[in-house]
């Protein structure tokens, strides 16, 4: 594909070199700032369109951003008094004149030296397509014009000057004039290869390519036919040059003989035929060039689509692999979760068993404490006052009573109220006092207040 592009570029360059030998007048053009090539010529009496499409006068393609330039970006047109206007065809990134974006679909008048910018800058870099309106001689700027502009200049200026006819008489051409026409030098004979119109897609009808190899073969055929047209054009130009040279020589001589006049007329007829054939061959070459450019653009587009498709396939594969890994991780987490649930269930069961055991132990403890309390309450009560011992006293017979109660009892009798044995001695029991004090701490508030009041009462009676 690169070789095909190089061939097209070389043929366009040859065509541009031939164009540079033509017109020498002043023209309007857009000088590209910072570039010594790619200048765009503005043709008078016609609408000059600029964009990235194929059906425009000047095709410009952005390298950094392919969509920076719209298909039909803008249009330049010259008014009757020679003033140029530019119209933005609703482009995406707009047309800027002297740093200001112009309105869409409204012609904007330009002056010589105005800065015209297509698109906007990217990432702080300067604008790719920035031009200045210039009016100068063709000889000075022809080397800087774009290839498209050179081809248009060639099409407009490739008409040869007509030689002056000198008719000495209106006699008809004799039968041997045709023979004299072909008795000229060998350079007048057309030895180029014939052109086959069937190779042009415009004449054969559009057809969809079946694949990459079909497009390459078609492009190769178009390139071969384009080379053949180029050779035929060179041969035709040589014939026209020789014919024009011969006609010039005959014009310089005096029309003294009938044969010279007849030869002059034959040369003029031949020049007309050659000119018509040259124009048709140029048109065929131009069409082939357009077909090659179109095929080149389609091939580049197809390659870009293939690359994007390959990237999409790679991304799909990566996504599928990532999904597989994700599923594996999910399965592993699921198994781990099931294991954790089993462990939690086992722990819950153990906890329930532990709670039951704790409840059972607590119940047993409470039962024991209750029994102990009942026993202590029964054993630590004074038989005289039916209250817990207050300053317990143990008699010689091992029975215990409150100190106040036994003292009051001994005033009447000096024997034990329980066993009726004589009281020989009595002693304070601190162990019973300490035990009773701890038991009182666990009693209710009413019981503690009652005991406190009873102790105070007995102390008061004692002091009295």
TrEMBL record:
Pathway: Protein modification; protein ubiquitination. InterPro entries: FHA_dom, RNF8, SMAD_FHA_dom_sf, Znf_RING, Znf_RING/FYVE/PHD, Znf_RING_CS. Transmembrane segments: none annotated. It comes from the Eukaryota. Residues 219-378 form a coiled coil. Pfam families: FHA, zf-C3HC4_3. GO terms for biological process: chromatin organization; double-strand break repair; positive regulation of DNA repair; protein K48-linked ubiquitination; response to ionizing radiation; ubiquitin-dependent protein catabolic process. GO terms for cellular component: cytosol; nucleus; site of double-strand break; ubiquitin ligase complex. Residues 382-420 form the RING-type domain. CDD domains: FHA_RNF8, RING-HC_RNF8. Keywords: Chromatin regulator, Coiled coil, DNA damage, DNA repair, Metal-binding, Nucleus, Transferase, Ubl conjugation pathway, Zinc, Zinc-finger. GO terms for molecular function: chromatin binding; histone binding; ubiquitin binding; ubiquitin protein ligase activity; zinc ion binding. The keyword DNA damage applies. It catalyses: S-ubiquitinyl-[E2 ubiquitin-conjugating enzyme]-L-cysteine + [acceptor protein]-L-lysine = [E2 ubiquitin-conjugating enzyme]-L-cysteine + N(6)-ubiquitinyl-[acceptor protein]-L-lysine. Residues 48-102 form the FHA domain. Residues 1-20, 156-176 are annotated as: Disordered. PANTHER family: E3 UBIQUITIN-PROTEIN LIGASE RNF8. Belongs to the RNF8 family. This is E3 ubiquitin-protein ligase CHFR. The gene is RNF8.
């Amino acid at each position: 594909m690169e070789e095909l592009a190089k061939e097209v570029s070389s043929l366009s360059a040859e065509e541009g070199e031939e164009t540079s030998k033509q017109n020498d007048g002043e023209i309007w053009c857009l000088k590209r700032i910072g570039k010594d090539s790619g200048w765009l010529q503005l043709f008078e009496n016609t609408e000059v369109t600029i964009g990235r499409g194929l059906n425009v006068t000047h095709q410009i393609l952005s390298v950094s951003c392919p969509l920076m330039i719209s298909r039909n970006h803008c249009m330049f047109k010259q008014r009757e008094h020679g003033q140029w206007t530019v119209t933005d065809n609703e482009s995406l990134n707009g047309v800027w004149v002297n740093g200001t974006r112009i309105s869409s679909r409204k012609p904007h008048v330009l002056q010589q030296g105005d800065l015209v910018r297509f698109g906007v800058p990217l990432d702080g870099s300067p604008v790719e397509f920035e031009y200045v309106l210039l009016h100068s001689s063709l000889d000075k700027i022809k080397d800087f014009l774009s290839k498209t502009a050179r081809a248009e200049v060639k099409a407009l200026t490739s008409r040869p000057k007509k030689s002056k006819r000198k008719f000495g008489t209106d006699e008809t051409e004799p039968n041997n004039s045709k023979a004299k026409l072909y008795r000229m030098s060998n350079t007048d004979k057309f030895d180029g290869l014939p052109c086959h119109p069937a190779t042009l897609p415009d004449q054969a009808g559009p057809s969809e390519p079946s694949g990459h190899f079909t497009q390459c073969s078609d492009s190769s055929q178009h390139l071969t036919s384009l080379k053949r047209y180029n050779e035929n054009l060179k041969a035709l130009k040589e014939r026209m040059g020789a014919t024009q040279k011969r006609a010039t020589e005959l014009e310089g001589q005096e029309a003294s003989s009938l044969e010279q006049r007849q030869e002059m007329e034959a040369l003029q007829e031949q020049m007309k035929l050659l000119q018509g054939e040259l124009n048709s061959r140029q048109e065929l070459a131009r069409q082939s060039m357009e077909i090659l450019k179109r095929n080149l653009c389609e091939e580049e587009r197809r390659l870009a689509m293939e690359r994007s498709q390959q990237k999409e396939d790679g991304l799909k594969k990566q996504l599928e692999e990532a999904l597989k890994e994700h599923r594996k991780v999910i399965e592993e987490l699921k198994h781990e979760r099931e294991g954790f649930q089993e462990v939690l269930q086992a722990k819950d069961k153990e906890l329930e068993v532990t709670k039951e055991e704790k409840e059972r132990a607590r119940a047993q403890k409470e039962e024991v404490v209750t029994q102990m309390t009942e026993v202590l309450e029964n054993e630590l009560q004074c038989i005289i006052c039916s209250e817990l011992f207050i300053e317990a006293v143990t008699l010689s017979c091992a029975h215990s009573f409150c100190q106040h109660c036994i003292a009051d009892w001994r005033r009447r009798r000096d024997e034990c109220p329980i066993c009726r044995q004589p009281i020989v001695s009595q002693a304070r029991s601190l162990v019973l006092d300490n035990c009773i004090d701890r038991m009182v701490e666990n009693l209710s508030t009413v019981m503690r207040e009652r005991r406190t009041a009873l102790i105070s009462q007995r102390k008061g009676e004692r002091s009295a």
